[in-house]
Amino acid sequence: MTRPTMMQYFEWYLPADGKHWENLKNDASHLKEIGISHIWMPPAFKATGKEDVGYGIYDLFDLGEFDQKGTVPTKYGTKKDYIPAIQALQEQGIVTIADIVLNHMMGADATEEVTVVEDDPNNRLKQVTGEHAIEAWTVFTFPGRNNKYSDFKWNHVYFDGVDWDQRAKKSAIYNFRGNSWETDVDHTKTNYD
C-alpha cells in the first residue's frame, strides 16, 4: 500500500436508528474498491442516550448489549452488529480504528455530597469561593449491566471536578477538595479544557 487513505465513517447528524454498524458492514467491499485502507469508527460505548454521538460516555463496558439509559443499542447499533462490521472490514484488508474516549463520563446513576471550591471560569487556577459542599452527579453503578465484565463502580474520588451542583441547580467550575487541575492542558483562559 503506497498511499493509505483513512475515512472517518461517521458524522454528528447520522440518524439514531441503530443501523450504522450494519451499514458499515455492508459497505466494506465498496470501501475497499474506492481505495479506503483505514476506517475511523465512532465511539461504540453506551453514552447518555440513543441520540448521543458517543462522546458523552456512560459505560465503557456496554457496546450496545445492555438495557441502560433507555436503550439497548447505542446510536450506531448493538454489539452483535459491531463485531461483524469490524470483521467485514478486516476481511477486505481495511484497518479498523476505534475512537475510544476514556476521559468523559456523563449520565451518572446517582448524586453524592462532595466538598469543592468554585474556580473562576476564565482562570481555573483561581478560586472564587472557599470550600463548601455540593451535590454532584458522580455515582456510576451501571445497574443494567449487573457487574458483567466488571464490578467497578465510579464515585467522586475518580474525578477532579464537575460543572453542576444539583442541590443549588447551579453551573460552575467545581474542583473537588484535594485535587488540582493540570497546568499543561491549554493556556486559553488559563487552563481551559
Describe this structure in words.
With 193 residues, the chain is an alpha+beta fold. The chain has helices at residues 20-33, 79-91; strands spanning 6-8, 38-41, 46-47, 57-59, 95-98, 110-120, 123-127, 132-139, 161-165, 170-176. The chain is globular and about 60 Å long. The mean pLDDT is 93.
Mean pLDDT across all residues, rounded?
A: 93
Radius of gyration: 20 Å
Stretches with pLDDT under 50, minimum 5 residues: none
CA(first)-CA(last) distance: 38 Å
Determine the structural class based on helices, strands and strand pairing. Answer: alpha+beta
Order of helices and strands: EHEEEHEEEEEE
**Estimated helix fraction:** 10-25%
Oligomer: single chain
Percent range for β-strand residues: 25-35%
Count, helices: 2
Structure summary, number of beta strands: 10
Question: What is the 3D form?
Answer: globular
Major beta sheet, specifics? 5 strands, antiparallel
